[in-house]
């Protein structure tokens, strides 16, 4: 624990001296995986991630797309005459871009958060035993925590996990440091709360 606190303090000081570059160096992970059995789309900032998912799917990087579910209700749908959950709107987006319905899987919701997204992904994968590799698509600053979480949750299985970082959004220019500082705090919380450490 003292080591975790020291590293966190060091990274925060370095970030405020040099800008977000230090945090970016620490938080952003790139995993080499050219193809996978499924793409997993993390729920937060989903509409920044979905265009990249469509592109990856069209490139043949994976035949399936798993949409994690944060349980949040979205706007009214004239087509369905009800408010759709955000995960359902994500499915609508993918279908509108030409992704067939049979390629899309809506994962269950238990609780909101990356840890529960990983648990619900694992439950589906282990129940439907044809998936052996996952490429998790998320924002670049979220990749380290995501990879640690999925590796921890899938430990003991034969499922390989990699992450695909969505490049930083230009709209984040003025708040990049704040966003990445918040992510570092979340990462430290995960280390303490769930005992996550790099696997392998």
TrEMBL record:
Gene Ontology terms: cellular component: plasma membrane
Stretches assigned to the DUF218 domain: 37-168
Regions that span the bilayer: none
Recorded hits in InterPro entries, A to Z, give: Cell_Envelope_Assoc, DUF218, Rossmann-like_a/b/a_fold
Recorded protein name is DUF218 domain-containing protein
Query: One of this protein's Pfam families, by short name?
Result: DUF218
């Amino acid at each position: 624990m003292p080591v975790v606190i020291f590293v966190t303090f060091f990274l925060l000081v370095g970030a405020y001296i040099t800008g977000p570059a230090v945090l970016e160096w620490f938080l952003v992970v790139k995993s080499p995986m050219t193809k996978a059995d499924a793409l997993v789309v993390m729920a937060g900032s989903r509409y920044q991630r979905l265009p990249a998912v469509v592109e990856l799917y069209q490139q043949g990087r994976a035949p399936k797309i798993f949409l994690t579910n944060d349980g949040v209700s979205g706007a009214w749908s004239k087509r369905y005459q009800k408010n759709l959950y955000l995960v359902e709107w994500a499915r609508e987006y993918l279908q509108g871009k030409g992704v067939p319905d049979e390629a899309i899987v809506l994962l269950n919701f238990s609780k909101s958060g990356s840890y529960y997204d990983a648990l619900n992904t694992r439950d589906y994968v282990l129940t439907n035993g044809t998936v052996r590799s996952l490429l998790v698509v998320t924002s670049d600053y979220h990749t380290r925590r995501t990879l640690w979480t999925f590796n921890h949750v899938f430990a003991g299985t034969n499922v390989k996990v990699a992450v695909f970082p969505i490049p930083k959004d230009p709209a984040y220019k003025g708040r990049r440091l704040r966003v990445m500082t918040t992510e570092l705090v979340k990462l430290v919380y995960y280390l303490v709360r769930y005992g996550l450490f790099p696997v392998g």
